[in-house]
Amino acid sequence: MSAKKYQDKVVLVTGSRRGVGRAIAEHFLVNGATVLGFARQEATIEHPQYHHFMVDVGDPDSVIRGFAALKKVTDSIQIVVNNAAVLTSQYSMIMPPAAAQAMVNVNLMGPFMVSREAAKLMRKRKWGRIINIGSMAASLEPIGDSMYAACKAGLSTLANVMAKEFASMNVTCNTLGINAIESDMLSQLPRDKIEEIISGLPIARFSVSDDILNVIDFYASERSSSITAQTVFLGGVN
Q1: Taking all residues of the chain, what is their mean pLDDT, rounded to a whole number?
Q2: Selection from 77, 92, 94 nearest residue 148 by Cα
């Protein structure tokens, strides 16, 4: 494949400021795409083809304003990566309601709003790829992650329903369930608990960026037009 395989693509990445989101945004930039980034704070990427928008995806009005702003840059989006997420890991009985609500807003409502607005632009071109970043928590259901796991399980269901709704527009919707990867989010969790979970996987190692980018490239490919309503988990999670 060409080193500039996304030369003519416009890609929207949420949570593009750091961690997995930044790695994804930089991957698309290296491969020739124009990248639009949504994040609550200022940009950390400097590139002539990168456009940053300060958007809180957990706030529907902020998402609407973000799309109004990006339409001044482009009226076309071909690929969306719903990556932005928040995590509070705590037993259900002591979970602050505000923390639980924040996870619902960012991890579930956010992808709904972003996908909804992006699909309106994809409909004009009759082509699109919506890729959600899920989590092994949806399948493994670890103690302390009740709301986070529920949101990530819901994310797959969201994609599967949207896949049916958007199929006639040649827009696919898929989910990538990542396992542990070194990030700010991971640092919030007890290391010994994470290592215990990873040790029980068929591929017992932490993920690296290339593991994630490999699946994203698969979902985003022109050749993946019949791949929709699917969830791929890294590490052998099932």
Answers
A1: 93
A2: 92
